[in-house]
Amino acid sequence: MRPFVYERPTSVSAAIAMASDPDAVRVPPTGASTQFIAGGTNLADYMKLGVARPERLLDLNTLAEPALRQIRIDDDTIRFGALVRMGEAADNNDVRRRCPVLADSLKFAASGQLRNMASLGGNVLQRTRCEYFREISWPCNKRDPGSGCAAMEGSNRQHAVLGTSDACIATYHGDFAQALVALDATVDVEGPRGRRTLAFAKLHKRPGETPDIETDLAADELITAIEVPLARWSTRSRYLKIRDRESYAFALASAAVALDMDGETVRSARIALGGVATVPWRAREAEDALQGKVLDEAAAQAAAEAAFADARPREHNAFKIPLGKRTLVRALLETRDLKG
Amino acid sequence: MNQAAPTPKENQGDPVVRIDARLKVTGQADYPADIVTANVAYGALATSSIARGKVSELHTRDARAVPGVLDIVSYGDMDKTDKPKFGNTGASSIGPLHDKTVFHDGQIVALVVAETFEAAEEAAMLIRADYENERPSASFDSKGVKMEPAAGKSPMFKEDAKAGDFDAAWADATVKIDEKYSTPTQHHNPIELFSTTAIWQGDQLTIHEPSQNVTGWKVELARQLKLDPANVRIVSPYIGGAFGSKGPMTARTAIVAVAARRIGRPVRCVVNRMQAFGTQTYRAETRHRIRMGARKDGRITAFGHEAWEVTSRPDPYVVGGTSATARMYDYGSVLTHVSLVHADRNTPGYMRSPPETPYVYALENAMDEMAVALGMDPVEFRRINEPEKEPIGGKPFSSRSLIKCYDQASDAFGWSKRDPRIGSMRDGDWLVGMGCATAIYPTAAAPCAARVRLTADGEVRVQCGSHEIGTGIRTIAGQMAAERLGVGMDKVSVEMGDSALPPAPVSGGSISTASVCSAVMKACDAIREKLFAAAAGRGAPLAGSGNAKLDLKDEEVVTETGKSAKLADVFKAMQVGALEEYAEFAPKGSSPEALGKLYAGQSEFHGGENDEDSVKYAFGAEFVEVRINSYTREIRVPRIVGAFAAGRIMNTRTARSQLMGGMIWGIGQALHEATETDQRYARYVNRDLQDYLVPVNADIKQVDVILVPEIDHQVNPAGVKGLGELGNVGTAAAVASAVYHATGKRIRDLPIRIDDLID
């Protein structure tokens, strides 16, 4: 691991001031010389592997603002401070009762140990686990722009079929983000140029020709909170995660589903897909296909077909298309059968 | 009943608690990299990023500039040492720093030594190599591989087993199966990382490194470094998982020793998880073609097993599991052939039940396919083909309780409730499938020495250079001494894992219980004789007991007639404070040099199919239930039952634990474990536990182990068959059969994953 400077700011404004750098706006946060660290479950790993090479780390765990560590629930929103740990949010009974898909997407992620360390702000910014990205001797457009993509014709069973580009097919592996993008969550961001609220759906960027630019954030901007609006679909919601083993594995395919039902008819559906796409993936085509329909297996199937209409498989990941569809069908039917 | 401590049945020992259980669970057991060493420097490896070619130039300037870097050992620096040898004690003949040729991905190009671990790692990352790159061959289907027959390439695989006229029987068979199977590359991934700590004191070298063969390594390392073996000591008191990976010594050990000598300080090198994939051994990738012919009544008349195995360019590592598959059933005729395929890969090696796991997987799958083709219950099919004698040499089995295992396991499992129709069993959205398979493992033993001391106050110390790799051998050796010397386990201490102790064979091939216990028993019996002679002598406490049989119990010498003398009094009469005996055990059939070879670090195995009088195997039967989601097709294993017969069971607790661990591993082999190789570059891709999957707790539900009583006086004096490698044989085939039963899909290539079942 390369040596780095380690500092512990005590407030959000101090952290931002310390990170502020005229260059920061031109470099993606993952390439900046000063980077934030919270749980460290992703960044420390990538620093050891030489993938992340910050010269200076600002530890957010010493920030004093209490709101960063709070979960606030009122009639129409759940608001998570960015330093709330995954484990705390997953185990929060009110979160589970009011919006099960949020709790499940956290509970089915990582391991207990990791959930106790990882912050929610860091969790949504986790970087891909693509093995060609992780090992620095491979070419990788995300790690080393312009060097090529070793995964494209390589071992790509884990890779994405949606939102890919000719430059990158790396999967976004997170689970919580699928629930957030489905539920129209927003993120509060603070930076030297002020405070802004961003639709969660705008936070991550598809790889396109610049897979190294992963988010809409500048290097000196900090996520302070994530807010989820509660609505009629929140309680009837579920996260289904399909993986090679029963726990502690990334999704091969997953679905976050929330339904507002009028009897057997779908008034409104919220759907996101994990394990199959390069970014948290809102399946609006599937939502549209369900609206006003009686939710039976055929309707679920039609929605799944719509969701994967643009999927592009590679040599080893073609199974993700039928698997992704079946995962969505199962998630829709299981969510329908929950009490509203 | 405490499930972890099964009540002993006939010929089974007490479930004595592991002697080192508390130390291990409280973190007080010192593993080799934990040993506190003054003034230690840290090593980190730099490894190749190509699989075939030559290093034209190595750039080390940036690495040397890292503050704290003390030395870099690379090309030229090992020239005064001898290259490693491939064999039982050496993982590969590749001397990575003796030669700039790159034979495989992840080959060592340098060792950096620094004041801190972090500096060493940083500097190792800064080492860059220029290569003359050649196109590598990754595996079976790659251009440029070299194929040759395996027979005769390894002393352990002399010939392809054959019997009768296979071609004629195959032509005549009414029902035929002709199918191909494959098993992937697998890495052991023990939780304890690989490490070497080298400490020089003058000419004396001490190596702390997790090892399954301290005596063998001592001799091999002395050869490489041109030292007197008496000046080399290998210490490995606790091992955090080995499974064969710590059996043969790798090139790293000598490199770290040279580094320590160069800088005049101890050097510790802990290899990171990713680098272990290229610098250690692994389970070879295998392919199989099985042809099986049978009559309508279920009798097998022809069995053909051809196989292909990937190995490295220079080393002929042979898996060779046809020795066991050819002797499993009453086949009529047998034809086998094993081929090696040399590719640009590191040399594979032993991994828990090395030959049996992949080969029996293929055989037992074919057995299930044949049972289906015959419309016969798979258990009944095996019963019909149960042999009187093994079909290759016509020798009897020293004991064979396979059918008893099937009966007891199928009862416990509830096999009779299985509806044999494909896809007929269902629980809501879950398809239910049930399958079974046979487990087999050869019973062998090797020469072993042990020293036992008994003091007047009943303290027992057992010393033996075997290795506690997690099997419980330390406990069992202590149990043997406690039983023979009539003291409680609380009075027994056992020292192992040090080449300064009496030599023991490699802890592999499931030979340790038989070999170590036989040696310990022999030493204890010598102590008993001395004690009894003294106790019954003139003027002694039991003088006049004459011919009455004596025994040791509760720290007393006791007679058949109920008289007794305290141990302390017998010692007083002898005017000694302690008795110590050194014993050497050699299995029946050992060569005259066998014991001499033990001190030279070579283990001469006896047993299995190689003895004159009989073939010796342990057997088991495993039954598995799988559940497969009808939508998303993930496979789960809610329960598995195994019944095993392995002669005398020394300790029902450790035996159950070994077999249970084996079955869990078998589930992992069936559903999870596989090292992915990038076929273009012959490089491993999933080199971490994030993507190299093994089962986690949530994957394992009910695991039942039945210990079937068996008495076998032929195998060895202790009457034990090893079982450390029995439990994971056959499991994957049982899972594959259950998957077929649930879905109608026969998956012949491991691991079985969602990809195979979804469409």
Quick synopsis:
Chain A has 340 residues and is of the alpha+beta class.
DSSP helix count of chain B?
18
Structural class of chain B: alpha+beta
- Named at the architecture level, the CATH assignment of the largest domain in chain B is Alpha-Beta Complex
The tally of strands of chain A reads 12
User: Tally the helices of chain A: what do you get?
Assistant: 12
Q: pLDDT average of chain A, as an integer?
A: 96
Describe the structure.
The complex is a heterodimer of chains A (340) and B (759). Chain A is of the alpha+beta class and 340 residues long. Among the domains of chain A are: 5-62, Uridine Diphospho-n-acetylenolpyruvylglucosamine Reductase, domain 2 (2-Layer Sandwich); 238-336, 2-Layer Sandwich (Enolase-like, domain 1). Chain A contains twelve helices and twelve strands. Chain A has helices at 12-19, 43-48, 86-90, 93-98, 100-107, 112-117, 120-124, 131-134, 176-182, 284-290, 297-307, 320-336, and strands at residues 5-7, 34-37, 56-59, 71-73, 77-81, 186-191, 194-199, 222-229, 237-242, 253-262, 265-274, 281-282. A five-stranded antiparallel β-sheet of chain A has the order 4-5-8-6-7. A four-stranded antiparallel β-sheet of chain A has the order 9-10-11-12. A three-stranded parallel β-sheet of chain A has the order 1-3-2, with helices on one face. In chain A, helix 11 (297-307) crosses helix 12. The mean pLDDT of chain A is 96. Chain B is an alpha+beta fold. Chain B has three domains: 1-10 and 395-443 and 608-759, Aldehyde oxidase/xanthine dehydrogenase, molybdopterin binding domain (Aldehyde Oxidoreductase, domain 4), CATH 3.30.365; 31-349, Aldehyde Oxidoreductase, domain 3 (Alpha-Beta Complex), CATH 3.90.1170.50; 445-604, Aldehyde Oxidoreductase, domain 4 (2-Layer Sandwich), CATH 3.30.365.10. Chain B contains 18 helices and 32 strands. Chain B has a seven-stranded mixed β-sheet with strand order 3-5-1-13-10-11-12, sandwiched between helices. In chain B, a hairpin with a 2-residue loop joins strand 17 and strand 18. In chain B, helix 9 (356-374) runs parallel beside helix 17 (731-743) and helix 12 (473-485) runs parallel beside helix 13 (512-536). The radius of gyration of chain B is 27 Å and the shape is globular. The A-B interface holds A 1-3, 48, 50, 129, 131-132, 134-137, 150, 153-155, 157-158, 240, 242-250, 252-253, 319, 322-323, 326-327, 329-330 and B 49, 118, 121-122, 125, 274, 429, 629, 631-634, 636, 671-672, 676-678, 680, 685-688, 690-691, 693, 695-699, 753-755, 758-759.
